[in-house]
Amino acid sequence: MTTTADYSVKIPNNVDLHEDRRLQRALESWQPNFLSWWESMGPTLPTEDVYLRTAVNVGREGWAHFGHVPMKDYRWGIFLAERDRERQIGFGQHQGEPAWQKVPGEYRAELQRLIVVQGDTEPASVEQQRNLGATAPSLYDLRNLFQVNVEEGRHLWAMVYLLHAYFGREGREEAEELLHRNSGSQDSPRILGAFNEETPDWLSFFMFTYFTDRDGKYQLGTLKESAFDPLSRTCEFMLKEEAHHMMVGTTGIDRVVERTAQVMTEHDTDDVTAHGAIPLPVIQKYLNFHYSVSLDLFGSETSTNVANYFTAGLKGRWMEGRRKDDHRLTDDAILVDALDDGQIAQTEVAALVGLNTDLRREYIADCQSGVTRWNRILDGAGMPQRLYLPHVAFNRQVGAFAGIETSPTGEQLSAEEWQRRKGDWLPTEVDKTYVRSLMRPVHERGKIAAWIAPPRQGINGQPFDFDYVHLA
After folding, report:
1. Which SUPFAM superfamilies match (predicted)?
2. Contact 339/404 with Cβ under 8 angstroms?
């Protein structure tokens, strides 16, 4: 395997695709379908070119090349992290054995399903975000949106490569289906609920890239541990790109909070709507929604499927190598969230069955770091208000708390009281309409919309007023 990407071929790759003519032809026949999907479901704003980074190699010496590229000519491709020929399986019943280079027959269906579900999320977010370019608050933000979009497209390629290369006819059929499902479609929606939600404005986009892409980070992190080495290496490289997506969300919310605090100070008021900023209570409502929807992506608190994935070596834990246990968990236990006689409680279960809870808790701790960061901005501005993560039971549709309603502080509510008060905690139509009213495009170099502060630094050492995007 090479580590440098070969750009002299129709499908850029570092997997020596030219050595497998049959696979190469199959992927080249899928490529026009992908490009057709991109034209019909990708970004709607016409552009001449965009200042994008493109993978040129996956080694430690650097892997990204920046330049102005027409979006339709972006070189989507297949890139796996370097292979460690000494790599051993790090957990489960096959712990200590050499990592698999081929799919074991007994795990074929499970591995294929894991890859399909991961693959389905990648084009879904492009579809959710396709209209956002028309209301970008600056060319810097527009460029970041398009970078996220092309990388989600490349992540789709990464999963499709695995399906084509290792799963035969069924894999090829699943690769086609990844382009046939569409976010929010009544007839063929995306597999996971959060990827059928709309992303109608930039506050939603920043929340999505902070909370939902962060879920993606943790899911990729578990698959990076997989005994199936090509999947592990694929996810390891995808995580490099995923970091940018989360940066967009983290700093985007930074800048919204910063601008709101500025307006509150300038006008000595909490009600910033008259001055074109987003009120802190509305930011909190958007946070509540995206956080709770993203918690559902981790599934139920207990799962025998995930226990079986772990034992088989298909999917590990976050940072498996840093764990101080036996990596088999056959005798370990964990406390998981539960309802006890209708009340929020915890119960002890086998650690293997509670792996979804283990991963969700890693995610929650990570999410809290962003909230701490945003509160630091408020504190620095002399504001007493604080943002917060709502209770884990708030607005849940999956798992132990799907059947109850709670306030963001965890107070259990009747269905009637929830209906009466949910507009205090989740975005209302009035909130959404107001936020959308602010979404007026600013496509002039060096200028930015009034509801968001400029970034502290540009991309790749460029200034904020760099010509990041040339519009058509």
Report:
1. Ferritin-like
2. yes
